[in-house]
Amino acid sequence: MKNIRNFCIIAHIDHGKSTLADRLLQTTGTISDREMTNQALDDMDLERERGITIKSHAIQMNYNYKGEDYVLNLIDTPGHVDFSYEVSRSIAACEGALLIVDASQGIEAQTISNLYLALEHDLEIIPILNKMDLPGAQPEEVTDQIVELIGCDPSDVIPASGKTGLGVDQILEAIIERIKAPEGDPNAPLQAMIFDSVFNPFRGIIAYYRIMNGSIKKGERIKFFNTGKNYIADEVGVLKMDLSPKKEVGTGDVGYIISGIKAANEVKVGDTITSLENPTDKAIKGFEDVKPMVFAGIYPVDTDDFEELRYSMEKLQLNDSSLVFEPESSAALGFGFRCGFLGMLHMEIIQERLEREFNMTVITTVPNVSYYSYMKKNPEQRMIVNNPSELPDPAAMDRIEEPFIKAQVITKSEYIGQVMTLCIEKRGELQNQVYLTQDRVEITFEMPLAEIVFDFYDRLKSVSRGYASFDYFPIGYKESDLIKLDILLNHEQVDALSALVHRSNAFDLGKKICLKLKELIPRQQFEIPIQAAIGAKVVARETIKALRKDVTAKCYGGDISRKRKLLEKQKAGKKRMRQVGKVEVPQEAFLAVLKLN
Ligand code: GDP
Ligand code: MG
């Protein structure tokens, strides 16, 4: 135990976490130069392409330092707010954290929010000034920021570069010297905290855990504390580049277990594994059942593909327990699923995986948050509304509540004005404003989660010319004056386009949505009125003029290859079109609300 070190790496996105992790793996010989592909830890194609870590992973390194052998467990954390609960559990599995800050960028919002999580768990922080090789690096200034933030000595900050390898030996030394060895009682009943799980098509579900007390043995009967389910530990071991089976994994160590678990939702991040024969009487604290935050309908483009879509979603759920879905039907789109996601990135990932891994072409409707509605006749009874088109009759409703978040923006002082204006426009309430350095300021405010689901992030980037970073966490539900805005195409209401909006925004939004739909829906043989309505009252209207001529007419007699190209283009465009009543509607139109600015 005294030669084990458990640590994670926390950083704002793009500050070089994955690259530095690769250097550590290389330097410790965990991965050979030949095996080295960039970012060995990001093993999903999507992760590699987008350069983000979606799921957290763990890997064990061996390192000889001053003649002693050490085991270093690196627990990688996902870098996106959608997965902040997973981040918190990964952090809870460690004694120390490498805090990476890009020397050319300085401290950003996720640097701070992850740092706070690490400090909450009493982690030893090793500050690293990364990307020192960049000509734009500002070591003195950024070191000052770090010193100010964590109150360390400037000499504690390690200058490094994941690119050139600068500082890597010093980092390994600091991991061993500064981070304390795990504590825990090897003779106590088993308590292991699950911080991640993955689905392997050959092995089933593999759960990753950190052992707090006791040990876990191959063949032993075990129990998951929160789900109450029992299993046999068919295989246990540690995580190298591959699974490395062992007879036993002991106190303080990080390992995996394969135990005939069928579905991902049996394994809950934060749950405690204990022994069935000699169980612990208390779970490791901090467990939460994560709930989806964002909901949207997913429909097959071709209505005949519904069963295939169900099959694909079930497969996806096998390895992503945070995805939830249930069948729903829409007058406009037919049969599909209402899906719950952890956030917007999670939703995009699912949509992309459906298309890439299952070859499904789907229509996604405007995402919304989950609302609580209360009826006049029973104002204490909470009803959950995950689909705006299912909102009860406003006349019978007592009130409606929506989820709020606490948001944190870090920006340059010259953009404070614009950022504040945006926050207020997004129904935000300022809580606090702190200067981190002379020209960097941290602004904290509360606002409805629904505004993030809309276009907050893109707007923030544009008003700050990219010089703002952003993070948030949920703080519960509050009453809001929300109303349902309906959209009618060719006089028919399209349920998939309904949205719940704040009363003060409804007219303006109605107008903008109509304009956007006019732009997105192609002209057809007849005139199409587009209307926005609140109840029976139309608040905005646009008209798509009828198409005069056949689009291919101008090609007749002309260049035949040009005509074919045009037809092919039309065919490709069709892939993502849905017939709604008489009107052909492209996928983008269903997301029009998100693209208003
Ligand atoms: P992550 O999002 O924190 O995991 O960051 P990555 O490791 O994916 O790095 C983000 C980008 O910065 C990539 O394009 C890397 O090639 C680049 N990068 C990472 N470390 C360094 C470094 O030390 N120096 C330079 N010049 N570029 C780096
Ligand atoms: Mg990464």
How would you describe what is shown here?
With 597 residues, the protein is of the alpha+beta class. The protein has five domains: 4-178, 3-Layer(aba) Sandwich (Rossmann fold); 191-275, Elongation Factor Tu (Ef-tu), domain 3; 294-365, Elongation Factor G (Translational Gtpase), domain 3 (Alpha-Beta Plaits, 2-Layer Sandwich), CATH 3.30.70; 371-480, 2-Layer Sandwich (Alpha-Beta Plaits); 484-594, Alpha-Beta Plaits. Helix content is 25%, strand content 35%. It is built from 14 helices and 33 strands. An eight-stranded antiparallel sheet has the order 11-10-16-7-8-15-12-13. It has a six-stranded mixed sheet with strand order 2-3-1-4-5-6, sandwiched between helices. Strands 21, 22, 23, 24, 25 and 26 form a six-stranded antiparallel sheet that branches. Strand 10 (221-224) and strand 11 (230-232) form a beta hairpin. Helix 7 (306-319) crosses helix 8 and helix 9 packs antiparallel against helix 11 (456-463). The chain is globular. The protein starts with a strand and ends in a 7-residue tail after the last helix. The mean pLDDT is 88. Residues 17-18, 42, 52-53 line the site of magnesium ion. Keywords: Cell membrane, GTP-binding, Hydrolase, Membrane, Nucleotide-binding, Protein biosynthesis. GTP binds at residues 14-19, 130-133. Pfam families: EFG_C, GTP_EFTU, GTP_EFTU_D2, LepA_C. Residues 2-183 form the Tr-type G domain. Its EC number is 3.6.5.n1.
Number of strands: 33
**Which value, in Å, is the CA radius of gyration?**
27 Å
Helix content: 10-25%
Listed once per kind, the bound small molecules are: guanosine-5'-diphosphate, magnesium ion
> The biggest beta sheet, please?
8 strands, antiparallel
Beta-strand portion reads: 35-45%
Question: Strands of the biggest beta sheet: in what spatial order?
Answer: 11-10-16-7-8-15-12-13
Overall pLDDT = 88
What structural class is derived from the secondary structure elements?
alpha+beta
- Shape call: globular
CATH-derived topology of the largest domain = Rossmann fold
Helical region count?
A: 14
Unreliable segments of 5+ consecutive residues: none
Structural domain tally: 5
CATH fourth-tier homologous superfamily of the largest domain:
P-loop containing nucleotide triphosphate hydrolases
Question: What's the level 1 CATH class of the largest domain?
Answer: Alpha Beta
Q: What is the distance, rounded to the nearest whole angstrom, between the alpha carbons of the first and last residues? A: 56 Å
Q: Report the CATH architecture of the largest domain.
A: 3-Layer(aba) Sandwich
